[in-house]
Amino acid sequence: MLEEEGWQPRKAVLGLFVFALWLGTAVVGFLEINTVLTMATRVYTQFWGDYGFYGSDYYAGVALRQFLVLPLALLWIAAVIGCGEYHYRRFGQPRSWRLFGWVIAVELSILVLALFI
Amino acid sequence: MKRLIAALESYFEDGAKIMLFMFLSLAAVIFIVRGAMAIPHRYPLDYGEAPLVDQAMHLAAGQNIYRPDLTSPPYTISNYPPLFALLLAPLVKTFGPAFQAGRVISLLSTLSSAVFIGQIIYTLIKDRVAAIITSMLFLAIPYVVGWSPLLRVDMLALAFSTAGMYVVVRWTSTRLGLVIGGLLLVAAIYTRQSFALAAPLGTFVWLWMQNKRRAIGFAAWVGGVSLALFFILNTLTRGGFYFNIITANINEYDLERLEWWLSRLLDAAPIMLVLGGAFLFLGFSQMRSPVPGRRTGWSLLSSYLIGASLSALTIGKIGSNENYLLEFSAALSLTAGAVIGWSRERRWQRAVLLVLLALQTGQFMQTTLVDEVEGAKWRLKPMKQLSDLEWIVETADGPVLGDEFMGMITLQDRPLYIQPFEVTQLANAGLWDQRPLLESIRNQDFPVILIHHFMEWPVYKERWTQEMLSAIMQNYAPTDFIAETIVYQPTEVGMGGITILEVCPGAPWRLPTSGTLGMWWITYQLAFMGEGYENRVPVYAVANGLLMRRPDWNNAVAIHHDDPVRQGEKVWSFYGGMADSMDEQSFVVSDFPPGSVGVPVNAGQLLGYQGMWSGEQGAPIWVHLHFAVVAALEDGSFPDEIVSLVAEGEPDKTEPQFALDPSPYLGTIRSQIMGIPTWLPLRCLEDIP
After folding, report:
1. In sequence order, what are the residues at sequence separation of 6 or more whose Cβ sits closer than 8 angstroms to the Cβ of residue A106?
2. Backbone angles phi and psi of B484, in degrees to 5
3. Is B381's CB within 8 Å of A50's CB?
4. Is the pTM of this model over 0.95?
5. Confidence (pLDDT) at B642
6. Which candidate in B8, B23, B145, B370 is best for mutational testing of the A interface (most A CBs within 10 A)?
7. Which of B34, B362, B373 is the closest to A113 by Cβ?
8. Which terminus of chain A is less hemmed in, N or C, by CB atoms within 10 Å?
9. ipTM of the shown complex
């Protein structure tokens, strides 16, 4: 009956899978904002930071972190909405899967990078 | 399943590519920032910068830089052929003796080298991705990041060398290509003589695999031009060229140094090393490959890698640094690029290789940040101290001797009087008579002598002969400590010699040890810095008393005395830091094992030797004794608080209720600055006018 109304179980499962994948990458991406901030602070500290808390370097490090939150958050929102729309329009197409592949690669890279920096 | 794997192939390759390029891009940013930090810096960043500026100054003035003997000052050596100094000379003449122009040459040369090695891979394999990876990998290598913004010859030599290889590979069949390629290799050799091995060998083997006659002609061209130039320069300088670039470069070889560098290399580049090795041995299969360029490509890169490895082995020489690994770094990048290129048809294999190289790049970045960037930061930071040091040199009336910061001398447009490391090696080899210099030191001909001290290793002992150091210690006094450099001035200026001081006049206690390199005042505690290696500089009891060494004290003892300053009170003298840098080997004499209690000792009795234990494992500082005077508790015991604080090496937190000002006990000068470690010359209070 449902199939007569255009309901295709395979397509629905696939749609659910795509949605879960998109949601998963969005959540991981959100969590990785913190990872990127930590890495940025570490790199800053290594280049310019001095030992000891509460010096000017400490505040500069904190300021850098706070300054980066906004652009990273905007980037994340743009990526989540943009990717969502892209997947919706190209549902089931190879280009959609390719974009998933790229996003997962970037997110995985950030996690691996955090092991070194 | 096979279909699924085949379908996923391209996704994985794309993902691996993204990962690698993300890592490489970040590494490139680190490279750029590190360069941007270093290049504008006014002061020398490395021992080797000033001699090159000095040579450029001489060349700009039309003077010979290859003197055949060193019987009279200046006692300087031009270690390298003249091309870099020749390029630098017009810049020095135009912009003055600053370091920035030479650093820009070095950085541009690094970028050129990266482009050329990428072009070599593209010419051999026709794989643009592999070529870009090769270039970017090279720029990610910590030694390249660290060395590229220094005013040194190495990067220019590498740029000439890789350019020569590229021209030969790209235009193999044209006579002009071989002529120009050969001239570029000669230019590399005449920038740094060690470049006479790897690239000429690689290009020769490459040509040999294609046309033996052409290879022999090429070798004759490169060898002929090089030898002709050598004879011309050697004749013009009456043998000075040979003496400077050959004789003066044969330094003592130390296998331990080689091992140390190899272990560092293994830590930093394990995947690249494995890839290089695999390329060398498994690449034999390419000798029969039907794919165009593989056979010859392998022959070029493998022979270049072998040549670069042999050059890198000379890193065991005293005075060597990471610049000895630059050509090897280029070779490893080339072999990695070739392996990537050759795996183009096997996408899974390529994806795995890309991920491995991404991990390698991560390791490179970590090493760069921890070693190169951290090191540069501390070099760049103390601008106020550096300008103070420059002022001391600027106002010195007469020739100044220096080592790490001899660039302060060339910055004043003054010629160098000595390159201490080079002449020390010659003196050790019996090739230079240092007596005239020693006489000048004894005559106090130099208003200022600057001796730099790296915290973790007494490098100054490789830079100055023991005779020079003795003459300096006997006739000069340390008057200041700036930017990790001790400033020595003639004793009448430095208010009295202090080297053989055992007791200050009128002081109730003798001194516990020598402080030839001064002392650090750490709010009522003193670190006496002796001259020498660990376990050599003796430590003595300051007065009669009863010695105690707690069971957990590896590096320390304390002695209980009647207080000579606060009559009727009891006091402890504390001696710490008498262990190696890991606090594993104790330098306390065996008469006082851990657990000793109430052992009578006399003033001047040997307790142990100065060590490098800083209170933190793996963070050694110069050989020193950590000394404190501690008020005994009511029951006469040693206060627990100070036990833990002193023994753990955090004396700056020690409150004065336990640690007493040691000045009245020892008669030494004191600092008015509390809470911040301050260097002072070891000097008696009564020496202050």
Report:
1. B18, B22
2. 55, 25
3. yes
4. no
5. 59
6. B23
7. B362
8. N
9. 0.86
Q: Whole-angstrom Cα distance, residue B665 to residue B680?
A: 17
CB contact under 8 A, A109 and B33: no
Q: Is A34 on the interface with B (CB under 8 A)?
A: no
Tokens of B459: 């490098």
pLDDT given for residue B287 in this prediction: 62
Q: Which residue has the tokens 């100055």?
A: B464
pLDDT confidence of residue B515: 86
Chain A contact set for B369 (CB, 8 A): 42-43, 46, 117
**Which residue is closest to B376 within chain A, CA to CA?**
A47
Q: What are phi and psi of B567, to 5 degrees?
A: -55, 135
Alpha-helix residue ranges (DSSP H) falling in B148-269: 154-170, 175-189, 198-210, 212-236, 240-245, 255-268
Using the beta-carbon criterion (under 8 Å), do A101 and B11 form an inter-chain contact? yes
In a 13 Å sphere around the CA of B445, the CA atoms on its Cβ side amount to 12
B233 token code pair: 């320069």
Identity at B564, one-letter amino acid code = P
Domain assignment present for residue A2? The answer is no
> In the 3-class helix/strand/coil scheme, how is B151-163 assigned residue by residue?
CCCHHHHHHHHHH
CB contact under 8 A, B22 and A115: no
Q: Which of A109, A113, A115 to mutate to test the interface with B (most CBs of B within 10 A)?
A: A109
Q: Tell me the residue length of chain B.
A: 689
Instruction: Decide: helix, strand or coil at residue A55.
Output: coil
Distance CA B572, CA B86 (A): 63
Owning domain of residue A18: 9-116
Is there a domain that residue A48 lies in?
yes
**Angular region, A95: left φ>0, alpha ψ -120 to 50, beta rest:** alpha
Chain B residue set in contact with A, beta carbons under 8 Å: 11, 14-16, 18-19, 22-23, 26, 30, 33-34, 37, 358-359, 362-363, 365-366, 369-370, 373-374, 377, 381
Q: What is the pLDDT of residue B647?
A: 38
Report the number of distinct structural domains present in chain A. 1
Q: Is the pLDDT of residue A2 over 50?
A: no
| Pick from A98, A104, A109: CB nearest B23 | A109
At residue B88, φ and ψ (nearest 5 deg) are -75, -30
Size of interface A-B (CB pairs under 8 A): 57
Residue spans per domain, chain B: 2-45+106-379, 383-490, 519-687
Closest approach of chain A CAs to the CA of B355, in angstroms?
10
The verdict on residue A44 lying in a domain is yes
Q: What is the mean pLDDT of each run of 10 residues along chain B (689 residues)?
A: 79 92 96 95 95 96 93 94 96 93 97 98 92 97 96 97 97 93 97 96 93 94 97 95 91 89 95 92 70 74 95 91 95 94 86 95 95 87 90 94 95 95 93 94 95 84 92 88 90 56 88 88 85 88 94 92 91 92 91 93 94 82 89 84 47 57 89 77 72
Q: Find chain B residues with C-beta within 8 A of A112's C-beta.
A: 19, 358-359, 362
Flag whether A91 is in a domain: yes
> A42, A46, A50, A115: which to substitute to probe chain B, counting the most B Cβ within 10 Å?
A46
Q: Do B22 and A113 touch (CB under 8 A)?
A: yes
Report yes or no: B269 and B356 within 8 Å, Cβ to Cβ.
Answer: no
pLDDT at B652: 45
B-proximal residues of A, 59-88, CB under 8 Å: none
In this structure, what DSSP letter does residue B552 have?
T
Q: What burial class does residue B449 get, using C-beta atoms within 10 Å of its C-beta: 0-12 exposed, 13-18 middle, 19+ buried?
A: buried
**Predicted pLDDT at B648:** 41
Residues of B in contact with A110 (CB under 8 A): 22
A interface mutation test: which of B377, B378, B379 has the most A CBs within 10 A?
A: B377
